[in-house]
Amino acid sequence: MSVLLELRQLAVSFATDDGTVRAVDGIDLSLERGRTLGLVGESGCGKSVTSLAVMGLLPPENSMVKGEVRFEGRDLLTLGADTLRDMRGARLAMIFQEPMTSLNPAYTVGDQIIEAIQRHQGLSAADARARAIEMLRTVRISSPEKRIDDYPHKLSGGMRQRAMIAMALACGPELLIADEPTTALDVTIQAQILDLMRGLRRDTGTAIILITHDLGVVAEMADDVAVMYAGQIVERAPVRALFARPEHPYTVGLLGSIPRLDEKRERLPSIEGRVPDMSRPPDGCRFAARCPFVELACRAETPPLVEVAPGHLTRCRRAPLAQVLP
Amino acid sequence: MSALLEVAGLAKHFPVRRGAFGLVSGHVRAVDGVDFELRAGETLAIVGESGCGKSTVGRLVLRLIEPSAGQVRFEGEDLLALSDGAMRARRQRMQVIFQDPYASLNPRMTVGAMLGEPLMLHGLAKNEAARKARVGELLDLVGLRPDHARRYPHEFSGGQRQRLAIARALAVEPKLIVADEPVSALDVSIQAQVINLMRSLQQRFGLAYIFISHDLAVVKHIADRIAVMYLGKIVETATTDELFRNPRHPYTRALLAAVPLPDPTAARERTLLEGDIPSAMNPPSGCRFHTRCTFAREACKRDEPALADDGQAHATACPYWPEFPPPAVLAEAANRDADRIRLTRLQAAFVNNQQREAS
């Protein structure tokens, strides 16, 4: 397996009225070709900012990106805007929670897919149209010959999501970043979209970074998982290990706090308190204030990510957690 | 025990107007004949996807919108026969919490003023000192501090705002709270805090909840009974345990099968529902679910099935359910292997942490 994407000490900060906010603070990650990485965490943990930094889509006026984003060995952060624009869409593509953020309401669905195909693949208008119809069929939109001339607002939420996926995949990217792709959808429609994504991944071998707050979606889709908290990765593991043997207290709490269909408990073990203010992150472990296993030393310095089992890393100085149990 | 709330034949048809003269060109049958009962202290969850009419039912029950047909009896009294003034007085006993705590709190009022207002309106506090004391008590009840009364809503996080919305609902000592997707906008760790809070308040004050949600897993943790809606009608209703153990209606089964489980080892039944949810303006004939139902037959396009009770409080709007193959039962995660035991013990530390914070 070869590495497709590698993030090294990626950091993103924003200038705000309250001072500098370090939204992403030193992320190391790697993704192999054809694999799916689930990037999970709650609002404000930095998961979406990380993906926008990879795509080069952060506003340059008020954001500062540091570190390296190596895609097929080249650091995207050092590329010029034109080169990056050529790569986006062709080699790396992104889909969002709300399809209308990437579909232009003033153009038909077909116009937008055709534009992407012509720009990146240099096909004739007729060939590009045929390819666009083919893509709509691939994402299981019925009567694609007709749908191609529809405006986005004519489509249902699920159909729009399919159209956006068709547009993202039209040029056969190596990497697809999907930011909460099913969060706005009803559960039966979500199941359709996830099934579609699984099929496309199998057929095309596209690597996926799936950003979501939904641990159920991660369990169904991801090979590996990275859990983010307050701008840092706090745990990284193969999907089965993460769900069976989480080694960071935040992951333990998060798994406990989700109501599950296959379990009923009197009281959900919720995580008390709230995430730290990222313009003034605390010293030491950022989860310390909410952690039931906290010790004095946890607040002294930021714990490093350490490997507790092959491929299983945690940013907790008390790990392995078996030792904190009475 | 008699019912706190009885709803019969409840319907709401919204007119759709078209063109320059606003002529009525059709009706959205948002709610189309719904019956249910709710006892004091009980939680009924109404679940379903977008456009099924669940939120409209909540608003109709409180007469925030006027029904097109049907009956709503609260403590034996027909609410629809009441004058506006009399209805306002009844609202002291029935409150509502919405999904978006950002939109439902007045940004220009301090928390103290916001919580104090209903106390004055309904004559629940005799003087300024009593009002202040009660506001402090309400904040304490929902896990906030009495000195929070001086702050404005924007100074609180989403979870804290939902606590404020709950405190405001509790201010008038209601018997019924309609909670419309109360935790849907919150992060999971915060969601659990609010669910736990709602449950403990229910036990303490004997509150009845109508809990409207699209999230079956959340509902499983809070509801005593569940009604599943599809396109304006209840298609199945049963106690929570029974519904999850023996789902009968093909829609309920599909809904349960579609929920992703946070367990990468789970073997799941994959019955994907084809197509989109049809428009409530022009619902399918016969059984409204027939266009997406894997078990549909000719008669389903023609005959509208009644919600038939089996005599044990499990009612299903599909006459053919006994003929279907049994659904794959969701194995309760009773798997007591070493990993599971370890995880449960670690999570217990979070529960203990909660209790420490509470005391």
From TrEMBL, chain A:
SUPFAM superfamilies: P-loop containing nucleoside triphosphate hydrolases (SSF52540). GO terms for molecular function: ATP binding; ATP hydrolysis activity. Residues 7-255 form the ABC transporter domain. Transmembrane segments: none annotated. Keywords: ATP-binding, Cell membrane, Membrane, Nucleotide-binding, Transport. It is found in: Cell inner membrane. GO terms for cellular component: plasma membrane. It is a peripheral membrane protein. GO terms for biological process: peptide transport; transmembrane transport. PROSITE patterns: ABC_TRANSPORTER_1 (PS00211), ABC_TRANSPORTER_2 (PS50893). It comes from the Bacteria. Pfam families: ABC_tran, oligo_HPY. Belongs to the ABC transporter superfamily. This is ABC transporter ATP-binding protein.
Automatic annotation (TrEMBL), chain B:
GO terms for cellular component: plasma membrane. Keywords: ATP-binding, Nucleotide-binding, Transport. Residues 5-256 form the ABC transporter domain. It is found in: Cell inner membrane. It is a peripheral membrane protein. One of its GO terms (molecular function) is ATP hydrolysis activity. Its main location: membrane. PROSITE patterns: ABC_TRANSPORTER_1, ABC_TRANSPORTER_2. CDD domains: ABC_NikE_OppD_transporters (cd03257). GO terms for biological process: peptide transport; transmembrane transport. Belongs to the ABC transporter superfamily. NCBIfam families: oligo_HPY (TIGR01727), PRK11308.1 (NF008453). This is ABC transporter ATP-binding protein. It comes from Reyranella soli. The lineage of its organism: Bacteria, Pseudomonadati, Pseudomonadota, Alphaproteobacteria, Hyphomicrobiales.
